[in-house]
Design goal:
Distance between the termini: 57 Å
Strand content: 15-25%
Number of helices: 13
Helix content: 25-40%
Structural class: alpha/beta
Order of helices and strands: EHEHEHEHHHEHEEHHEHEEEHEHEEH
Length: 434
Amino acid sequence: MFFDRPESGETAILVHIDFPGPNANDNPRELEELALSAGADPVEYLFGTRSEPSSKFFLGKGKVEELAELVRLHDAKLVIFDHSLTPGQERNIEREIECRVLDRTGLILDIFAQRARTHEGKLQVELAQLEHMSTRLIRGWTHLERQKGGIGLRGPGETQLETDRRLLRARIKAITGRLEKVRKQREQGRRARARAEIPTLSLVGYTNAGKSTLFNRITEADVYAADQLFATLDPTLRKLEINDIGAVILADTVGFIRDLPHKLVESFRATLQETVEATLLLHVIDAVDEERREHIAQVNNVLHEIGADEVPTLEVYNKIDGLEGMEPRIDRDDQGTPVRVWLSARTGVGTDLLIQALRERLANNMFHEIVELDHNQGQFRAMLFAQNAVVDEQFTDDGRIRLEVRLQEKELRKILSRLGIPHDRYLPAEEEQW
């Protein structure tokens, strides 16, 4: 953006080095999927094992020579590392192999830049890219001489690199200010939903777990969904009507991934705030993924990082159509509360069980009683019917109306307050909150 870079092409060499330790990543397939999502054409995979990264090249000298030979063999224009590299390591490797080098963070940033559609999403991605780039500006310059003098050519007395850094800092400041305005607008929307007591459900999960497919299935929306990493970047909110609960807001969010760059988490904090302040998280899990346990742990790590690890969670095991003999079901804890739902968003099997589980998890304070009304309480009766709260209606011999009523207590309180009826006439005093 602010400095010259070698022309990048689609042909790419992938590099994956195994390091000992509990956090070691032994699944290089994910890097290939990321590269394909970015539009690269992986032609070779370079594997290796080291006890620890080299401070100069990350790789050993022998592996650097092997990598250079692969670049020449395939005429590759890009080398992608399945690791985070320091600016110095990237610069040293590029100099040795004479090819552009991209680390895992840069690759994910590139995918996010391709996927961003909304103005806010583009700003968030650009901010993360600029902050990532700020430590790597020197790589694009082979000289640090002062700007040339002379008539009409006298510069401000700073190097081109210093000029770029100054422009970059100004752009970061401008984007941060605009995102702060977006954050305030989102905050106003959340406060409005809180005042209306509308529950918010947030879909979270590892990338490509099927969140958008599930979102489309239960909301009848048309959000872009594809079998690729980070198909969804910009958040989407839809209203969903659930019997006995009423309106809820369902939010589809960006997928998480191993080693999600911290700069992205910071840049997308305004978007992820929907997750932090949700009433319930729906953690979508790929049931056929052999590494689902590791992916669950990665999602939980990100939730902890953004401060959403205390939000109540319902696990949704998706893609059961890929498991032989698996039937949709609800798993419950010792108190009978739904904690896990097994379904297939693609076929729709089990989505009715998800709605049932949501109804149970959200209906913590449900009013389900027989209510007797006098003949002059027609307005009360009409408001209960308007809320679809009347399960059964009978008329007594003395002209009274006996209703079986089922609705949330908060909705009943609103009706009673509007009509000026004392709450304790229908609700126990100890449950009075208004």
